[in-house]
């Protein structure tokens, strides 16, 4: 199950009144955060050419949303506040939207530059 | 079943609850719109007015490819193995308090939305009550907050009780009565009455899956 599907399903389950076992959820959250941290570390080690700062800013926004969704899920279970479910869904959907936008924009710029390079050569 | 006119009926500052909820939703909506505008602006300004040398162009192409790949991996490759292992569906729950065990009612309607901060406050009040009752088991239990809403059942209006309820002992009531917010509280069934109304199936239940 992908991370964003899991977050959305968990939020839905909270709204339906399902019970979450805090200890087991803790290990799942830890696993998810570790994966995100690894990707962020990899991303930070990449070169940062000028003119593409917008991509990095957008990715940062998406990662922030995902971390917030994980934090909210933890808070909702630990403090028994299922009312946080809509906030979890919103953060997750926002992150997905941003990531799709980033992927599409990066691909379109990539293709445009490839075509330019092809024409020049 | 369609909610015709959702109207909260709360004994404790319902208007304030609604107002806080509206404010929180408006603020969250504004923040979300600002975030979306920020991202759109950032992405629209990529490479704007840049004249790239061939080396820079190569570096930019690599970066674009890596970023696209990273976004795709976050969307499709990040996974949570056995994601449902921490979750127990509501219909499998058995709630036990002392010698009393019961299955929660199936949820036939969406809970009335309550602001998260209000819910946290309720939980803390309930926790304080539990602590108090652990030391004074004879303290009277009363309900000071119930939330209901009207539903349209084929043209006929009916009142259905909500799931949110705050119970306080006389100790808690005293502290709240100072602000003059208490309405006449209904009496809740005592644990002995609850035991009498249990079905034999639940009474024989000896190994509940989860206890709260």
Number of DSSP-assigned strands of chain B: 5
In DSSP terms (H or I, runs of 4 or more residues), the helix count of chain B works out at 6
By DSSP (H or I, 4+ residues per run), the number of helices of chain A equals 4
Round the mean pLDDT of chain A to the nearest integer and report it: 87
Which pair has the most extensive contact? A-B, 69 and 65 residues
Measured as a percent range, the helix fraction of chain A is over 70%
- Sketch the major β-sheet of chain A: none
Mean pLDDT of chain B: 61
Helical residue percent band of chain B: 40-55%
Shape of chain B: elongated
Describe the structure in your own words.
The complex is a heterodimer of chains A (121) and B (212). Chain A is an all-alpha fold. Chain A has helices at residues 3-16, 22-44, 53-78, 85-120, and one strand at 19-20. Chain A is built from four helices and one strand, in the order H-E-H-H-H. In chain A, helix 3 (53-78) runs antiparallel to helix 4 (85-120). The radius of gyration of chain A is 18 Å and the shape is elongated. Chain B is elongated and about 80 Å long. In chain B, 43% of the residues lie in helices and 17% in strands. The longest helix of chain B has 31 residues, at 14-44. Chain B has helices at 14-44, 54-76, 116-135, 170-177, 191-196, 200-203; strands at 87-88, 95-97, 100-102, 141-153, 156-169. At the A-B interface, helix 1, strand 1, helix 2, helix 3 and helix 4 of A face helix 1, helix 2, strand 1 and helix 3 of B.
